[in-house]
Design a protein that fits this description.
- 17% of the residues lie in helices and 43% in strands.
- The chain has helices at residues 7-18, 71-80, 129-140, 196-205, 265-275, 325-333; strands at residues 2-5, 32-38, 41-47, 51-58, 60-63, 65-70, 86-91, 94-99, 102-109, 123-128, 154-160, 163-169, 173-180, 182-183, 189-195, 211-216, 227-232, 235-240, 259-264, 285-290, 293-298, 306-311, 313-315, 319-323, 339-344, 351-356, 363-371.
- The longest helix is centred in the first third of the chain and has 12 residues, at 7-18.
């Protein structure tokens, strides 16, 4: 095998593929990246039996072939190479990497022992890459990072015809985002449970393409280890779907709310960040809505304390409540509107946060963020 490729092209492809290479693989060979040079194309792939990635780039192929080398080592090397064409050649069991005056020799592993990548399922439709990336970022903040309840580390993807709804929760907050996509055929109705980490990688790495194709097996329930796949440009990734019954979280959103307040999102976000500096771990930031203003307070007793006031447009009466500052900040950060609307039914019940483009306009219900209050003495 022998090929030449631009340094930036190689570095980007290698580092994207290496994202899924396990740090501590169950089998040593899974730490490798498979490089296949053929017909003017260099393909790089990785697989850990759950998540697979494959990237293809154009290269000047002098001799076809394939090799398996340490993925993380190759990623580190390609990032550090000078900005000159990279020549790679396989000699025996060694891969030579030459770039300008830099020369590296990497030991190869047995390609024959490396597992074959799973076939990407049938493409079911496509979605604008930016829309998908934003939806994933908004919902994944609420997915649990605690493996105590593995089911909650996933994001539920509900597909009904031309609408997709993403849901994520860690029991203390719930995020829901709806968006449109273009299905290959009408009438699709299914629900998939996807690892939040997988979706996060898709959001970060596939936004440069105009559209992202979504692929999944037709009959999820009857097929164990069913796959979901995403493809954009010359990249594709697949992941096994999670098993289990996701809790019926939609019903947590109240049908009616009696108290609403609209606040400038940027002012509030900055205020929350400042006030929460004195909030000790597992303590709250207290919010008091009254007299067309919002008072934020944090800190207790003889410890450090902080307070700040921002303007607010209210309807339905005054209310005092308290939230985990990190959860509140996360919800405010992923909104894309200038204003935020708080909707309450009771101080002890969850509040719903939505975006609003203008102070007196209607709320944007595409994204809803429900957050549990923290009890505190008033």
């Amino acid at each position: 095998m022998k090929f030449t490729v631009a340094r930036d092209v190689l570095a980007e492809a290698v580092n994207w593929t290496a994202r899924t290479v396990p740090t501590r693989p169950s089998v040593p060979i899974l730490a490798g990246i498979r490089m296949t040079a053929q017909d003017g194309t260099l393909a790089l792939s990785s697989f850990d039996y759950e998540i697979s990635t494959r990237s293809e780039v154009e290269a000047d192929i002098a001799q076809d072939g394939e090799v398996l080398v340490s993925g993380r080592l190759l990623a580190s090397i390609t990032k550090a190479l000078p900005n000159q064409p990279v020549e790679c050649s396989l000699e025996g069991a060694k891969l030579n990497v030459i770039c300008g005056t830099s020369h590296f020799t990497l030991a190869s592993m047995s390609v024959d022992e490396y597992p074959l990548l799973p076939q990407i399922p049938r493409i079911r439709g496509s979605v604008d890459a930016q829309v998908l990336a934003q939806a994933i970022s908004q919902v994944s903040v609420a997915a649990s990072s605690d493996d105590t309840i593995p089911l909650l580390t996933g994001v539920r993807m509900e597909i009904e015809d031309d609408k997709i709804t993403l849901l994520g929760t860690d029991r203390y907050r719930l995020a829901m985002r709806e968006f449109s996509w273009e299905p290959e055929e009408p009438g699709i109705s299914t629900a998939l449970l996807v690892k939040a980490r997988t979706l996060g990688d898709v959001a970060k790495s596939m936004t440069s393409a105009g559209r992202v194709e979504i692929a999944f097996d037709a009959d999820i329930e009857s097929q164990p280890n069913s796959l979901i796949g995403f493809a954009a440009g010359n990249r594709r990734t697949t992941s096994t779907l999670m098993d289990g019954d996701y809790p019926p979280v939609r019903r947590l959103f109240p049908e009616e709310t009696s108290i609403q307040a609209v606040v400038d999102r940027y002012e509030l976000l900055d205020a929350v960040k400042r006030v929460s500096l004195v909030a000790e771990q597992k303590t709250s930031v207290r919010l008091g809505f009254a007299d067309e203003r919002l008072v934020l307070e944090a800190g207790q007793d003889d410890n450090a304390q902080a307070s700040e006031v921002v303007g607010a447009k209210q309807s339905g009466g005054d209310i005092q409540t308290a939230f985990n500052p990190r959860y509140l900040e996360s919800g405010l950060s992923v909104l894309d509107t200038d204003y935020v609307r708080f909707s309450f039914t009771d101080p002890a019940k969850p509040a719903v946060i939505t975006g609003q483009k203008e102070e007196t306009g209607g709320e944007d219900l595409r994204f809803r963020y429900l957050i549990m209050p923290i009890r505190f003495g008033i």
